[in-house]
């Protein structure tokens, strides 16, 4: 573990920036699913590497927290490792790879398989917070559509998928309605993870650094994936068992093993998978 | 003027701890959090209300308060927040006496509801497990909260505040070293 660096404020950001972030986070919790602009700071890593999530984490993090960071479900990929090291160096907090031991989980594009608890907070890194961005590029206009709760554009977009492909062809960043009022981008998590957001006991916070937006879903809040009566939402999962732990419930990554078409499917959530493997080995 | 009492002993970590308490209170309306132990703000300001303002108010937020000259001096020194002339112009409103009507405060706009004010109300007592029945986001089934010392028309005014969602005012109730929050989404039914 790297030592805490001298010369930086706790958790890197200055106190005025933290207060600005904290005010935005509180209003985000009070208005579930509504995007709140904030003054995103330049961070010591580029936009697109989770600067929004890092700023939210820095604003809430305290010395008694245990931080877990995942990137596509994995604790050991570059983004996750560097963010975890960043916070051990600027805040000296404990880190973990175990979902159950963490009090704050910062994530890029997955929700852990293990159900989260009331005493945990999950922070999502968000590249594009505006669910209507591909349909209406003007910010002023999307703000107006949100204020009017006019989400017809998104329904037409999903309907066009059904007309063209026979099903809704959106496998990630699948739009959701929060508390029956705001259309929200769940960040590029697989649609498979969407049902986990609904009435989750943990607080969910979202930070988009480049787009300078914060939003939130309070605990036990209804999060509904958009769908149609005759085309209900279906979470998509590769129809295989994990090659390592044998799970038929978890979300799988496809891994190419050679250049002759060899491939295998493994859990994307490394902590869930290694936990199951360890259990099986202990039983043998 | 009396002697200025100190703010947070550790401005960084104390503010973080109080923020997490307020975040928890706002995320789970009706659950009581502890805040402000050790603070001695000038009367009639309570430790929890003072802690919330030390944590959230600064030169970027307007503040209105009815706590008198000593409290004004304390807040001016520790928070540096500019004072608003009327409650309706402030981002944070501290009510130590009879709170201004929720309808009179800034509720934000349909496009920018986050501009709605935060009303910090000092009350005589907060108790979980009895009184109001709260439902809404952050609450699994129902949280109960008994509040002593609010004006009798508060619940009716709150229903009107909630009806204009997403516009609205969020409330932080403070009693001594305890606080609870009412985000604009929460529904209050009387016991």
From TrEMBL, chain B:
The keyword Lyase applies. InterPro entries: PhnH-like_sp (IPR038058), Phosphonate_metab_PhnH (IPR008772). The keyword Chaperone does not apply. Coiled coil: none annotated. Gene3D superfamilies: Bacterial phosphonate metabolism protein PhnH (3.40.50.11310). One of its GO terms (molecular function) is lyase activity. Keywords: Lyase. One of its GO terms (biological process) is organic phosphonate metabolic process. This is Phosphonate C-P lyase system protein PhnH. The lineage of its organism: Bacteria, Pseudomonadati, Pseudomonadota, Alphaproteobacteria, Acetobacterales.
């Amino acid at each position: 573990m790297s030592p805490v660096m001298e010369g930086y404020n706790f958790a890197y950001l200055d106190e005025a920036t933290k207060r600005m972030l904290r005010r935005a986070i509180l209003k985000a919790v009070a208005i579930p699913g509504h995007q709140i602009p904030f003054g995103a700071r330049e961070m010591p890593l580029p936009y697109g590497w989770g600067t929004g999530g890092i700023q939210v984490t820095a604003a809430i993090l305290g010395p008694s927290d245990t931080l877990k960071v995942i990137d596509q479900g994995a604790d050991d990929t570059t983004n996750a490792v560097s963010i975890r090291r960043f916070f051990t160096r600027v805040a000296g907090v404990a880190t973990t790879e175990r979902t159950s031991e963490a009090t704050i989980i910062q994530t890029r594009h997955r929700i852990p398989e293990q159900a989260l608890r009331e005493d945990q907070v999950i922070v999502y890194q968000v590249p594009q917070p505006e669910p209507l961005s591909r349909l209406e590029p003007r910010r002023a206009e999307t703000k107006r559509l949100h204020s009017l709760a006019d989400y017809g554009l998104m329904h037409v977009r999903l309907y066009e998928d059904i007309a063209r492909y026979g099903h809704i062809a959106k496998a990630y960043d699948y739009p959701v309605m929060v508390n029956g009022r705001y259309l929200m981008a769940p960040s590029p998590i697989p649609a498979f993870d969407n049902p986990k957001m609904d009435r989750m006991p943990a607080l969910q916070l979202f930070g988009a650094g480049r787009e300078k937006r914060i939003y939130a879903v309070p605990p036990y809040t209804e999060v509904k994936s958009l769908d149609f009566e005759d085309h209900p939402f279906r979470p998509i999962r590769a129809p295989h068992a994990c090659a390592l732990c044998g799970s038929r419930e978890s979300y799988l990554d496809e891994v190419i093993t050679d250049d002759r078409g060899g491939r295998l499917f493994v859990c994307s959530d490394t902590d869930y998978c290694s936990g199951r493997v360890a259990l099986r080995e202990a039983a043998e | 003027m009396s002697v200025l009492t100190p703010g947070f002993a550790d401005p960084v970590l104390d503010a973080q701890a109080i923020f997490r308490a307020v975040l928890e209170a706002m995320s789970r309306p009706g659950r009581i959090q502890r805040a402000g132990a050790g603070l001695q703000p000038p009367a009639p300001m309570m430790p929890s209300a003072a802690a919330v303002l030390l944590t959230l108010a600064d030169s970027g937020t307007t503040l209105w308060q009815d706590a008198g000259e000593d409290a004004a001096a304390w807040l001016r020194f520790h928070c540096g927040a500019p004072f608003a002339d009327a409650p309706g112009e402030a981002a944070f409103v501290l009510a130590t006496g009879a709170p201004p009507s929720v309808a009179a405060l800034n509720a934000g706009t349909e496009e920018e509801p986050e501009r709605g004010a935060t009303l910090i109300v000092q009350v005589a007592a907060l108790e979980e497990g009895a009184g109001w029945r709260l439902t809404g986001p952050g609450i699994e089934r129902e949280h109960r909260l008994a509040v002593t010392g609010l004006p009798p028309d508060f619940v009716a005014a709150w229903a009107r505040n909630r009806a204009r969602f997403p516009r609205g005012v969020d409330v932080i109730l403070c009693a001594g070293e305890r606080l609870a929050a009412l985000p604009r989404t929460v529904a209050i039914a009387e016991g």
